[in-house]
Design brief:
Length: about 425
């Protein structure tokens, strides 16, 4: 009897000790990524004593809310942010240095280069990819064939896109050759800037501190878009519509070429199975290929305890496992690691591999003033597009944008 009591006491003590040592960590995520990250946390929590508690924050409120919580001394332990905001938070000394952890991952070289670049400040790494995506083009193979174009041959340059779009528009019957979302800075950096990168140019310097708007690639890209607009080859709602309008227009079979993202393959195959399409990387004016590396990066807030930091590091290792990477691919279209093509895409549409493969060449603007430069509806980037394309004033648009970018950077650079 005494032995049984001692064994029971020991077991109870072990349970109490385990419970006492278990950690609960708080992780803020954007609502757009919330379902996937909540599911990953649920899977992790089911097999671990430590718990990851996900709080979903409306995407547009994430940055100001997180900034306010840090200022008030009541931040979460970690946050899954749009990667474009990592330089700003890192420069403000609000994120935990995880350089050693990232470098020590056996698949460190397989992490999206742009996500790591945006998470790096002053030689230190402050984040790790969570749910990446990439921008691509989709084209309607039926319309290509009707217009006398080779449906098995994707446009290899923006010049070709413009020529193909005009031929498709000539089919008539409310058919348009091209669609892009022109009234959203977030969309434009996603699917317009890759033309510039594919040509070897950029809109900002490598360190994000200087404006490089006035380049041959920018001039040629705006000219091609303006030419398509004047020719009536661009769908009219491109100027004022949104991403939903773009998908609906393409799914209707009345748009030849769509500037879009990696999600499009799974979306079209599941919801619009009658649309025959192919996808390709985004080309530059005369060739090349690039993409916008978008999506989320997981960062830890500076001052996190060693115990909680260890839990979030363990959570990262968990969702980086092949099984979870397959789940991420199923739910959001692209895994966090670029070395798992066979496992991640074995059961999915192989067209996903186009975006997956281009991720290694994808870029993201490195800047401390993302919203003011690119996202603001009255900002210089939107004005560059509207004036250069729809007002047919390429020279004036570039000159004005170069000056406006420079003034903002001079004021906001740390």
């Amino acid at each position: 009897m005494l032995k049984r009591k001692l064994m029971l006491a020991a077991a109870t003590l072990a349970v109490m000790t385990s419970a006492a040592s278990a950690e609960d960590v708080t992780l803020w995520v954007r609502t757009s990524s919330g379902p996937v990250l909540q599911a990953l946390a649920d899977k992790y929590n089911a097999s671990h004593d430590d718990k990851v508690n996900v709080t979903q924050v409306i995407a547009e409120q994430m940055v100001p809310k997180l900034g306010a919580s840090i200022a008030a001394g009541t931040p979460p332990d970690g946050a899954v942010l749009d990667l474009i905001y990592l330089p700003t938070f890192a420069a403000n000394d609000t994120l935990e240095d995880i350089t050693g952890f990232v470098d020590g991952l056996p698949y460190a070289d397989a992490l999206s280069p742009s996500h790591i670049r945006l998470a790096t400040y002053d030689g230190k790494i402050y984040g790790v990819p969570a749910l990446p995506d990439a921008s691509i083009i989709a084209y309607n193979t039926d319309l290509f064939e009707k217009a006398g174009l080779d449906p098995t041959k994707a446009p290899a340059s923006l010049d070709e896109i413009a020529a193909d779009a005009k031929k498709i528009s000539a089919l008539g019957d409310d058919t348009y050759g091209f669609y892009f979302v022109a009234n959203s800075g977030s969309w434009l950096i996603y699917d317009f800037l890759p033309h510039i990168w594919a040509a070897g140019d950029d809109i900002l310097s490598e360190d994000g501190r200087e404006a490089t708007v006035d380049t041959p690639a920018m001039r040629a890209t705006l000219a091609d878009y303006s030419d398509m607009w004047k020719a009536g080859a661009i769908h009219p709602t491109s100027r004022s519509g949104n991403g939903n309008n773009a998908v609906e227009a393409f799914a209707s079979g009345k748009v030849g070429i769509l500037m879009t993202g990696s999600y499009i393959v799974n979306l079209l195959t599941s919801k619009y199975p009658d649309v025959n399409f192919a996808v390709a990387p985004i080309p530059g004016p005369e060739g090349g290929a690039s993409s916008f590396a978008g999506g989320d990066t997981l960062a830890m807030i500076k001052g996190i305890s060693p115990e909680k930091k260890a839990v979030l590091e363990d959570f990262v290792k968990f969702y980086m496992e092949p099984e979870q990477q397959v789940f991420i691919t199923q739910e959001s279209g692209m895994p966090s690691r670029t070395d798992l093509a066979d496992e991640a895409y074995a059961q999915f549409d192989k067209r996903n591999l186009v975006a997956y493969d281009i991720l290694s060449k994808a870029r993201t603007p490195y800047t401390y003033a993302s919203d003011e430069l690119f996202v603001s509806r009255t900002g210089p980037f939107i004005n560059l597009i509207q004036t250069g394309i729809f007002d047919d004033n390429v020279d004036g648009a570039i000159s004005t944008a170069q000056d406006a970018f420079t003034k903002i950077l001079d004021r906001t650079n740390p």
